[in-house]
Amino acid sequence: MEISRRNFFKFGIFSGLTSALPVWAKKAVLTPKEDAPPPMGEEGFAYTICGLCPAGCGIRVRKVDGHAVGISGIPDHPINQGGLCPKGAASLQELYHPDRLRTPLLRRGPRGSGEWKEISWDEALRALSEKITRAKSGSKIKPLAALTRARAWDIQGEALRGLADSIGKDNFFALGFPKSEFPSDAYERMHGSRRVAFHMSRAKLLVSFGFDWLQSYPSPVEAQMAFAQLRRGPSRDRAEIVQIEPRFSVTAGKADQWVPVRPGTEGLLALILAKQLIANETYDKAFIHAQSRGFEAFKKSLDALSLDDVSKTTEVPEKEIRLLAVKLSSLKPAAAITNRGPLLTQMAVHALNALLGNIGTGGVFSGMEGREGFWADGLADQSLQARPPELLLVDRVDPLFLSPSGWKEIVAKTPFVATVSSFLNETALSSDLVLPCHTPLERGHCSFHVSANGSAVLGAAPEAVAPLYATKDPGDIFLALTRALAGTRVPADFDSYVMGHMKKLRAEKMFHESSGGKIWREMSAAASGKPHATRSGKFEFDALTDILKLQDVKKAREDGGFPLHLHLYAPLAFSFGEGAHLPYLQSVAGPQTQEAWETWAEMHPETASLPGLSDGEAIWVESRRGKIKARARLSRAAMPGVVSLPVGLGHAGYGRWAKGLGSNPLEIGEEGTEVKLWKA
What we know:
By secondary structure, the chain is of the alpha/beta class.
């Protein structure tokens, strides 16, 4: 990263955290080589997309003699506007990481043994295409399942989907990281499309249900700018921000009001707020009458909920709930947001936006141009557990780390697993074939993203630097496999494939003109302002009502020796569950607790007093599923009865700076899991 006065102050908040580095890490990461001269040679710049998360920030790469030596933001890029988050700053560590994979690996010993044989690309692609051909011709079960990361549309994902489509149907899946994503499942079921734009700056009241949006949004840089815009002007014109969340997060700390809620009950709280709006007749009757379907059935489904019961279950006082309902109906336009958590929560929160009438022209939510992203043909873990494929192809995602409870069984039952990755992560370690891919700086980009002003942004740029090793672009791998299976119908090379799509998008000039920094094109929200692609052409409550009929939303506490509730969150450094392999991100993981390089458990002193725990003490966090080790961090800002754990650490592989450090809380449960604590 280029160090300037602006960047120094931008990241100064994190500088103190390096003191938490282990001695060996300080020597490896922070100690300069005195005999290393400053880079001299011909200087140049390349403009590209960051790629370390799906946000789509534009970056400028400073190069000396073709080698990347600095990263900065593109000042007028619509998403990050010159800003750079810690992940963007760590791009060079990803590129030059000493543990990057450099050649294809074929498993020799048992899965997970770490015994590999280096093979050529010709051998690797031939072996994999032969495996796919045999699976396709001889298997009565699903021949192939392709798994990628849930994200907006990009050219590499399109190539993988093309490969999956050439083999069969219902075999393309996407694995998400709900804590860092928008509630796209609710958008699809209630609007008929995931392409829904969120105009945050229009809101006068922003109520967030369990979404630490200042750490994700999906661009944390843009989130900070959106926050500044909401706070701009005289106090009477500023938006009010309410954060409903079990943990006193970064967003909660900057909000006007923090409402602690029991983990996993945010959806129930949203439903009782909906009932309050309807009972008080403070919802938007005109919108509901003209632009919604299924309202009366939804209204009736709320009859079983009582304010008293919901207050006890969520641990939010009745008075607080009533005041929230008044705020929602009086501060307009008001917006309710959440992340891609449980489907019930997604839809319950988004139903509030329909009741408030802030969808469509002039509202906080509207339709959006662009291409549909990569989500799922179904719930991958449930679908593939019931019917494992003959061959599993994993694209730059780590299901064995992000969802270990379901994917361990799937991988174990799948005869052949191939992984495309730059590192030996958990899934790669359990694969039969590993195909090393370019890092984001080494590959071209063509992708859609969403900006805070409600527009779709098409980003397109060639690679910033030449590949350091004999790796390949993921799209090149998938296209080569498709060509081997489908023959002449596939473009001869990946560059031709990319340019073909660029022509369809009328953006081919962007590749040729990227040296000037213009690597994007904005597409405004749909002119009609009506984001309803449903069959009825209206906002539909039906799917939410159906879930309420089948699901008991008033979950009773089981306890049984597990008196506490687990809350999981993703620090900015580990957004989307990734980043622990980069030492800079390890060092800035816990800015609120001053923790780094290990897993910590945040709790109220009252919670710690029951098992007799002290601040800084090593502890066990145990659920019915298992136990993990963490370090106790006590704070009076924590919600009593809740244990908050960061997700991102606890890897068995993923490089020298991730392997063996910390614990993975996803191994013992999910949001709201009942746990207990004891001294380690």
